[in-house]
Amino acid sequence: MRAIPSIWLWLRRASAALRGDRRGIAAVEFAIIAPMMLVLFFGTVEFSSGIAVDRKVTLVARTLSDLTSQSALQAVTDTYLQNVFTASIAILTPYAASPTKATLSEIYVDSNGVAKIQWSKAATIASGDTHATLAVSTRSAGDTVTSSVPAALLVPKTYLIFSEVSYLYKPSIGYVMGKAGITLSDVAYTRPRQFTCVSYGNAPASSCPTL
């Protein structure tokens, strides 16, 4: 019978000793906090990179339309447009340019305020390429794009150079964002600087309607 009180007394003393022993508490706290810290760290890295790429996509869209609108040629050629699209590679550095898809189009706003595509050309950049590859645009001459143009730019009998850029951003870690990535995109509008309009190919200056 004396053994039971002795055991109980030992358990009470052991419990009191454990409650007062704070050795290893820092390790336990670190084990609890570390996963949250890692999530915050990787999340910050991924979102920061995504924001940086999104900014570069905006710069690419503005550059494509700006370079085309400043063309010293009345009619741009495939070679000229390929060089313009290739500028995207330098702008996106140090990020890979391979997921980039871009389109350049010229829009004419007629006397009724209706905006239509005059010509359109697209390009893609494959992994490892140092030059853009021209492709068939999803837009065709004659397509009505009035709803896509800001109301302030729908000035009758004027032209616009319209650029569209999309970029598939894939995070290097994929811990916070999905590994499949997200598509970043932007557009830009500029008016021709040197001529009334910028034709494509062998189209003569008279191919620019003014009605």
Task: Tell me what the structure shows.
By secondary structure, the protein is α+β, with helices and mostly antiparallel strands. It has one domain. The chain is built from three helices and seven strands. The protein has helices at 3-20, 25-69, 78-92; strands at 75-76, 100-109, 115-124, 133-135, 158-169, 182-190, 199-200. The strands form two sheets. Strands 4-3-2-5-6 form a five-stranded antiparallel β-sheet, with helices on one face. Strands 1-7 form a two-stranded parallel sheet. Helix 2 packs antiparallel against helix 3. It is elongated and about 105 Å long.
Summarize the structure.
With 211 residues, the protein is an alpha+beta fold. The chain has one domain.
